Amino acid sequence: MKEISSAFANFTQKEISAIERSEEYKLSLPLGEVVLQKGDYEISSEDMPGWLVATEGTLTLALDIKITDELKREGIARELVNRIQNLRKDSGFEVTDRISITLENRKEVVDAIVGEENKALCDYVCAQTLANSIQLVEANSPKLQGAAELEWEEGSVIKIKVER
Questions:
Q1: C-alpha distance across the termini of the chain, in Å
Q2: What are phi and psi of 27, to 5 degrees?
Q3: What does the pLDDT look like over 43-80, one tens digit per residue?
Q4: Where do the H-state alpha helices sit in 22-115?
């Protein structure tokens, strides 16, 4: 049994696929050949740390679910677009209205859309929302007077003001 277990631990995906397709599989071990029948084993997949694994039939898919800094910045940009689009709609703006956006200065927002390395994400937010400009100001700034307070991450809120 120990030899079989050791052999299984070292199988390649190709060998596992061959076992799954066959009714009978001959396994060569140092102590001799072992014949495995379909009911002698069970092949399953487990999640690996940082990966999400799914199996259906002979197909196994593993996804790397680590959130990189780049993915996090893109997610923040997309969340901003979503919040701003909802504000546009709630404010009764026309689809073609150009707007200016004033945002509460939050570290994660700055990290996502400010700076030369994030210009593409800032341009994305502007293009998706038809914004001529995005201005970041402190939460107590008079420029945020009348701003909407919207749910943000982990139960916090962010102030966003959208004007024609």
A1: 74
A2: -110, 120
A3: 766 667 888 888 777 677 888 888 899 999 999 999 99
A4: 69-90, 107-113
In the three-class reduction of DSSP (H, G, I as helix; E, B as strand; rest coil), residue 151 is classed as strand
pTM: 0.66
For residue 53, the one-letter residue type is: V
Q: Are 113 and 125 in contact (CB under 8 A)?
A: yes
Q: Which amino acid is at 74?
A: E
Residue found by looking up tokens 């996090």 in the block: 72
* DSSP label at residue 114: S
CB atoms within 10 A of CB 110: 14
Q: Residue 140 to residues 13, 52, 136: CA-CA distances in angstroms?
A: 58, 42, 12
pLDDT number for residue 5: 79
Q: List, in sequence order, the alpha helices (H) in 11-154.
A: 13-21, 69-90, 107-113, 119-129
